Amino acid sequence: MQTTVTFRHMEASDALRNYAQERTGRLDKYIDHPMDIQVTLKVEKFRQIAEVVISANGIRIAGMEAHEDMYAAIDLVMDKIERQVKKYREKIRKHKPIQGKELRWRRDTYAQESFEEDREPQIIKTDNYFVKPMSLDEAVMQMDLTQQSFLVFNDAGSQSINVIYRRKDGNYGLIVPQNP
Fold first, then answer.
1. 107 has which bridge partners?
2. What's the rounded Cα separation, in Å, for the pair 64 and 78?
3. Which pLDDT tens digit goes with each residue over 122-151?
4. What is the domain count for the chain?
């Protein structure tokens, strides 16, 4: 397990760093895969904010909490993360994982100015994804855990790349490619 603690708009404190590492260390009993944990502690006006992002075995779990006291904010966010990890673990026990070929996916982000004045668009950011084979239920579960707005996955039944996204009304949409 690798834990990174970042301080923003505040002085770095060994006591806070050790406390955050101690609290995140308790997740070892739930996830036995190699984990990468990023903890961001920041101050915005009157709020102390603790944000935690966990990446382990292809899943991403994120949480953020604010409080007047940084230690309380860390406790709140870790309780939230622990509930999410327990929920994920229970769902995994109920679902048999689907075996298949994991694909690699790339997303490019273009600058808005590059679409004006009839010139070539410039790539300003590229993200790489591992597209795991999973069922639609597993994809919805993964989106619930990660709080992301979309998820690209390899449908285990049809072996095609699909995109599931969260709609503004709280439901989900599914994009399935059609062969001509």
1. 127
2. 9
3. 677 777 777 778 888 888 888 877 777 888
4. 2
